[in-house]
Specification:
With 251 residues, the chain is mainly alpha-helical. The chain has ten helices and five strands, in the order ααββαααβααββααα.
């Protein structure tokens, strides 16, 4: 089982996140990262929430958001989000930007995920489209937007087939939502402002508006999904729990 990154120094956190220590300290001064826990000898210790938040900041920067815009986005998130919740946010934000794979050796890959990878681990990551094997067996094409979430799924006690089926459901329905949202954006914002073909200034303005809307849409999707999932679990397992209590042994 993978040990969670619950006790990282700032140097270890920087290595796991693929950023510099200076960047981490700068984000901390801007309030983008929560303060570390202070351990023995007054050394700051960082955990999985810091790692996931750094990954989310990275994706928002790829979107072209300024630090001020990222601050506003993070301020709107519930304060008690877990590392898993932040990883979901990051994966959804990454889905808005063009695909970008990076070459990584096995050593570089293991340094990023913070663990040694077995061949079975690599097979599972490949099946989840987190990485692709290349002609060079020492090099992989890695999707950094899925890497952290995919790594966490390695130790989930669920069959790979179930994970892949769940991924298919998510892709199918998020694509449907994206189509409908794009249609609404086009009908309400794009078409009413078009007079013939769009000029360069109008096109740039629309792209900027779309880019700033996307994080808000992501947050709305995550919130709606989490509430729907809690309701489904409550209805399913709540009924099972009630039945168990009614059918339990008599005292």
């Amino acid at each position: 089982m993978m040990e969670p990154a619950t006790d990282l120094t700032v140097d270890e956190l920087a290595a796991r996140a693929g950023v510099t220590v200076r960047t981490i300290r700068f984000y901390s001064t801007r309030g983008l990262l929560p303060p570390p826990e202070i351990g023995p000898r007054r050394v700051g210790r960082y955990g999985p929430d810091h790692l996931s938040r750094l990954a989310l900041i990275e994706e928002l920067q790829h979107q072209g958001l300024t630090l001020s815009a990222i601050e506003r986005y993070l301020e709107q998130l519930p304060p008690d989000l877990s590392a898993q919740d932040l990883a979901i946010h990051r994966a959804l934000v990454a889905s808005w930007i063009p695909d970008k794979a990076e070459d990584a050796t096995r050593e570089q890959l293991e340094r990023r995920v913070g663990r040694a990878l077995t061949e079975e681990d690599v097979d599972r990551l490949a099946a989840m489209s987190v990485l692709v094997r290349t002609d060079d067996p020492r090099v992989f094409r890695v999707d950094p937007g899925l890497l952290h979430l995919g790594t966490r799924l390695l130790d989930v006690p669920i069959a790979l087939e179930t994970i892949l089926a769940a991924r298919g459901v998510v892709i199918e329905h998020t694509r449907a939502a994206a189509r409908e949202l794009s249609r609404l954006f086009k009908d309400e914002v794009w078409e009413p402002n078009r007079h013939g073909g769009p000029d360069d200034e109008e096109l740039a303005r629309m792209k900027s508006l779309s880019a700033h809307m996307q994080p808000m849409v992501v947050q709305a999707l995550v919130t709606a999904f989490q509430r729907s999932m809690k309701q489904e679990l409550r209805e399913s397992f709540g009924r099972e729990g009630d039945r168990g209590r009614r059918e339990g042994p008599e005292g």
